[in-house]
Amino acid sequence: MSESRKITLATSWLDGCSGCHMSFLDIDERLIELADKVEFVYSPLVDYKQMPESIDVGILEGAVSSEDDLDKALKFRKHCKFLISLGDCAVTGNVPAMRNFFPLDAVFDRAFKENVQLQPQRPTVNVPKLLVPVRPIHSVVKVDLFIPGCPPSANTIWQILSELVAGRMPNPAQFTRFGA
Ligand code: SF4
Questions:
Q1: Which of 13, 20, 65, 91 gets mutated to test ligand 1 (max ligand atoms within 8 A of its CB)?
Q2: How far does residue 21's CA lie from ligand 1's centre (Å)?
Q3: Pairwise CA distance, residues 3 & 102, whole Å
Q4: For site-directed labelling of 34, which of 5, 21, 91, 129 has its Cα 20 to 30 A away?
Q5: Which helix (H) or strand (E) holds 161?
Q6: Where exactly are the structural domains of the chain?
Q7: Quick one: 42 exposed, middle or buried, by C-beta within 10 A (0-12, 13-18, 19+)?
Q8: Minimal CA–CA distance to 65: which of 108, 94, 44, 96?
Q9: What is the pTM of this model?
Q10: Can you give the pLDDT at residue 180?
Q11: 157: closest CA among 139, 145, 142, 141?
């Protein structure tokens, strides 16, 4: 990657718990150091509403569980030159994919009827259609780098971004593992 200008970085999330993004924020004061070399252009962590046409590095958290997730992943990939799949949900499906073991109707019943005392009912308004099965990101778009971990530690994210910023291809296995 060119070192003559700041690298543009975007993040987004699909079906996850935001924990991977929180881990990213746990980079803490090193975010300031990162900001010297990297420009955040789109993220749920910042206030930009428009996704730029071209983004150097994109980071996606979460699994593909719904039509909405699928649309997001396809659009994000289109805009990102280099895509990172961040966290076990993104890499394997992890927690969201646990519903793959049950019929979708049973999952809905469990979540919205059996465990609910007040007005148990299946939501139908403004709810994206769920996909079966839940899938990891690389099964719907090309991924350039996988960072496993639930969540990957702040140090891991920092090390890997530092390598990328320095123009080197990092080896995530040096810093993290599944469930780390
Ligand atoms: S990998 Fe873990 S921390 Fe990250 S979104 Fe999934 S459950 Fe949350």
A1: 20
A2: 9
A3: 49
A4: 91
A5: helix 154-165
A6: 7-98+132-174
A7: buried
A8: 96
A9: 0.92
A10: 66
A11: 145
Q: Quote the pLDDT of residue 2.
A: 47
Best of 22, 85, 150, 156 for a ligand 1 pocket test (most atoms within 8 Å of beta carbon): 150
The CATH classification number of 7-98+132-174 equals 3.40.50.700
pLDDT of residue 177: 72
- Looking at ligand 1, which residue's alpha carbon is closest to its atom 2? 150
Q: Are 49 and 55 in contact (CB under 8 A)?
A: no
* Residue 174, pLDDT score: 81
pLDDT in tens, 92-129: 999 999 999 999 999 999 999 998 999 999 988 998 99
DSSP 73-87: HHHHHHHEEEEEEES
Which ligand 1 atom is at minimum distance from the Cα of 61? 5
Q: List the structure tokens of 154.
A: 């702040």
C-alpha 115 – ligand 1 centre gap (Å)? 23
φ/ψ (deg, to 5) at 46? -125, 180
Q: Which residues of the chain have a pLDDT value below 70?
A: 1-4, 179-180
Q: Which two tokens stand for residue 49?
A: 């509403």
